[in-house]
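Troubleshooting entry. Yesterday's outputs looked truncated, so today I'm pasting the complete records for two proteins to confirm everything comes through intact. If either block looks cut off, that's the bug. Protein one:
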Amino acid sequence: MPMYKKFTNAKKTELVENETDISIAEFCEHLGLSIIHGGSSETMHISTFNINRPGLQFAGFFEHFSSHRIQVIGEQEMAYLKKLKPSAREKAVEEFFRRDFPCVVFSSGIIPTGDILVHAEQYGRVVLSSPLRSTMIINELSIFLNELLAPKITIHAGLMDLYGVGVLIIGKSSVGKSETALELLQRMHRFVADDAVCIKRVSDRLVGASPPLIRYMMEVRGIGIIDVRSMYGAGSVRHSKEIDLVINLEAWDECKHCERAEDEGETYSILDVELPMHTIPVKPGRNLAVILEVAARNYRLKFMGYDAVTELDERRKHTDPDGGPFDF
């Protein structure tokens, strides 16, 4: 049963699979790979997080072959190649290396044979090696490529870690986002980003971080820029945090907020992921830091299956309709 209703003004973003160039050295450093042949360039172009094992291609079937995928050759593929006659193996290997793929990774510490290296050099292909078995290196590649190619967006907001809950604080300029984050810091919560949050979608999760230029920096009106990590210590900051909850701060409007909030909450869409959202009216005297702490605690309770509204409804069902408000 859905916990929240959809926020009609939520932002919708068309998702596209990103493409990027990455240096071969950086790629190998992240994944613990060794370079056997560096190809004809220091970088390679990555356009998909899908991986291919070219067993069918060595058998001569190239229809529907996705040459833009990273190729992984394991023990099975090498065993098949070694069983072929030299002329057939030569033809299979050359036909494969003619295709323009980003790189080929040999798993299980396999050392490519001489004919493979000859054709890799001939066509300028990147050949790498991993000590991991095929399944493990494919998993590592998939995780890394999902993060590398994740759809990204930067929004005007702040991001805090409250009791392990990633809380994205949105609202118009000067509404009090930074001051609220500063009070939360004083209450021993952890700071991720202020003013701008870079958000990427990894699978169905949203992960937020600060732009590198202003990482760990916060602007406090009347004081200026402060370095949160230097002022409060390394334990007060996080490099990134998965976003769980959105808090929308807006100026108090007597007409708009004359009634209590509805039982069901709102949702906010970022990169086509719906997040629960609470709109908090701001006016002098309201302790926003405490309200955000309550929102984070309440989110954790709902995540664990407890909902106060549902509990209240159950109590109403079992209450004597003739009983007064103080009927014990």
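Protein two, checking that the full record survives here as well:
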Amino acid sequence: MNIICSPAGIMDPAFPGQGVLDMAGSGFENTLLDLNMYCSPGELEDVGKPKVAAWKKKEAAEPEWKKKVPISEEPARLSREVKPFLEKCAGAKIEVSVAIAPCLKWSTKREDLEVLLTRLAQESIKVCGQAGIPYLIVQPLFASVARGAEWEKNRAYFLGLAESAGENGVRLLLQNQCRDVNGHLSRGICAAPGEAADWIDRLNRELGEERFGFCMDVGVYNLCGQNMREAAVTLGSRVKAVILRDCNGRDKSAMLPFTCVNGGRSVTDWLGLIRGLREIGFDGELILHFEDTACAFSPLLRPELMRLAKATAEYFRWQIGIENFLKKYKSVVLFGAGRMCRNYMKCYGEKYPPLYTCDNNQALWGTEVCGLTVKDPESLKGLPEDCAILICNIFYREIEKQLREMGVGNPIDYFNDEYMPFFDME
């Protein structure tokens, strides 16, 4: 599972060096090429509109690098504009794994940009081919599409992109959409998981190959009030990428996961998301998008924020792929005989049975929990060297310190039951 850091809010596309260094310094090895940073939804909204005199006056005073012809007027320049970013990434040994094609605002009323969007998508495919980027997220057409004609319009659009995508070795990912109608957010094209799955299957069948996949945008599902576990399970192996971003469920934003809270609890249904991705065995591109959080922090604090972001992404990778973590060890012993131990046994005890558990509570020594004998922590000194100890207690670091001070040299890891498939309720 690749952890990918979106550069939005972190990097200035005209001067990408510092943003790339911040990503590399925080341990990120993969990033995203967001082509909206070079041709924004706002720019597309203004295509063909006359510039007012005040804008022209301001334009005359701007530096030369800001006077370039917009990408929307010259899409072929896209590959040249992204070159500095790609070169900086290569120098920092950061791989660019996914790209996003330029897209429209959710609230757009423009219905005359289909030709331009097609041209931009084609240029985006070429950029991916030249840079060796395997995935391109492409927004379905919606602004010029009559109700009931969504599939036929997008069928022609995506199949028209498929030949170039095949020649460049690029896989196209559709993405769930939101619509902003006079300030009211509602479900857009591909928001319904069943519809999205059907579109992808039909496109791949017509091509005779798997050229299309799906990108789940967690923020959009949250805004639309959708069940994320159900979405993940319905889409299944079609999901090749997931965009992790938090929001308050009302406003479009990209916050660091777990930072939008109400009453001390996350607004986003992370439990449903993690359970769903775990259930389908997701092992694709995990994209961390926290533009608004990054913009709110001083550039001086940003390196510290980036380290927290990396740790957050690693936490998601660990939770989603928890069985890969459990498979690491030939044998395990648990530390803790409480609720977390019972949850481990209920969810994984049969598949990954521990030798026993232990606990600091002397009253429990010699008793049984879920069929496991509870022993004195001193028993851990006699474990085989390759047997791991999984701490099933929220006082992880304190217990690890205790065991190390006892002279226990076995691998010690933490088990966490916040996102189990189900919980022991006894």
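Both blocks look complete. Sanity check on protein two: The longest strand covers residues 95-100.
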